[in-house]
Amino acid sequence: MRASLIALAAVSAAFPAVLGGPLAYGVCQTGCNVAAGTCYAAAGFTFGTVLVATAPASIMACNALLGSCMVACAGMAIAPTL
């Protein structure tokens, strides 16, 4: 058992941390866009079809939600994944 653990540790040490962050970042961004689309639908609009100049307060709230979500995802782009 001990030899197996030593071998596993040696093999694991040979590989550096993997930057899986870009994939996590993409998944997070997709989640943000789905949430924004749902928010727009709840407000009675279609995501991506409302002009900012004529947008009601509910759409502006959806846009703020989307922006906050995207900012929260930003750190994932460079986060190491083990």
Question: Care to describe what's here?
Answer:
- This is Cysteine-rich protein.
- Keywords: Signal.
- The protein is an all-alpha fold.
- The chain has one domain.
- Helix content is 63%, strand content 0%.
- The protein has three helices and no strands.
- Helix 2 packs antiparallel against helix 3.
- The model has no long low-confidence stretch (mean pLDDT 81).
Number of helices: 3
How confident is the prediction overall: mean pLDDT? Answer: 81
Number of strands: 0
What number of domains?
1
Beta content:
under 5%
Query: What class do helices, strands and sheet pairing give?
Result: mainly alpha
Radius of gyration: 21 Å
Quaternary structure annotation: single chain
What sort of overall outline do the alpha carbons produce when their principal axes are compared? rod-shaped
Biggest pleated sheet? none
Q: How do the helices and strands follow one another from N- to C-terminus?
A: HHH
Helix content: 55-70%
Report low-confidence residues grouped into runs of 5 or more: none
Distance between the termini: 23 Å
Protein name: Cysteine-rich protein
Keywords: Signal
Highlighted features:
82 residues, mainly alpha, 63% helix, 0% strand
Entry summary:
With 82 residues, the chain is mainly α. The chain has helices at 2-13, 21-43, 57-73.
Please specify the SSE layout and strand pairing.
Elements: H1 2-13, H2 21-43, H3 57-73
Signal peptide: 1-20
Keywords: Signal
Protein name: Cysteine-rich protein
